[in-house]
């Protein structure tokens, strides 16, 4: 399939995917910073609900609330948010390296 896509479209898609992973790096760094208490996190660690069912309120006491600023698990001293940031940064590096190579091939094909 990649051979059927024009080189320009392939380059644009690579850069767009790199931008998505840059956002992932930002979110991972933000969350890791909240966990390490470098800056304050969100005031609420919950998503919104469309409707409120009062029968669900009865079950709220049975649910363990997980704080946003406490990592649930660390591996080698790094939380999953930290690994998310590091691995996403590595993916961004390789995507931009690929985009640079694609751009170089496009320029050499023209000249």
From TrEMBL:
InterPro entries membership: DiS_bond_form_DsbB/BdbC, DsbB-like_sf
Ranges annotated as spanning the membrane: 7-29, 75-97
UniProt subcellular location: Membrane
Primary subcellular site in the record, as a coarse category: membrane
Gene Ontology CC: membrane
Any Pfam family matching the protein: DsbB
Record carries keyword Transmembrane helix: yes
Entry annotated with the keyword Flavoprotein: no
GO MF term list: protein-disulfide reductase activity
GO biological process, one term: protein folding
Keywords in alphabetical order: Membrane, Transmembrane, Transmembrane helix
Record's bilayer topology term: Multi-pass membrane protein
Protein name per the record: Periplasmic thiol:disulfide oxidoreductase DsbB, required for DsbA reoxidation
Species assigned in the record: hydrothermal vent metagenome
């Amino acid at each position: 399939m990649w051979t059927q896509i024009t080189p320009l479209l392939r380059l644009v898609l690579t850069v767009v995917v790199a931008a998505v992973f840059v956002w992932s790096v930002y979110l991972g760094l933000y969350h890791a910073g909240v966990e390490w208490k470098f800056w304050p996190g969100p005031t609420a660690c919950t998503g919104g609900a469309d409707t409120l069912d009062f029968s669900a309120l009865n079950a709220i006491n049975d649910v363990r609330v997980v704080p946003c600023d406490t990592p649930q698990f660390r591996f080698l001293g790094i939380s999953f948010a930290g690994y998310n940031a590091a691995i996403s940064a590595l993916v961004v590096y390789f995507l931009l390296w690929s985009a640079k190579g694609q751009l170089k091939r496009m320029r050499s094909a023209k000249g």
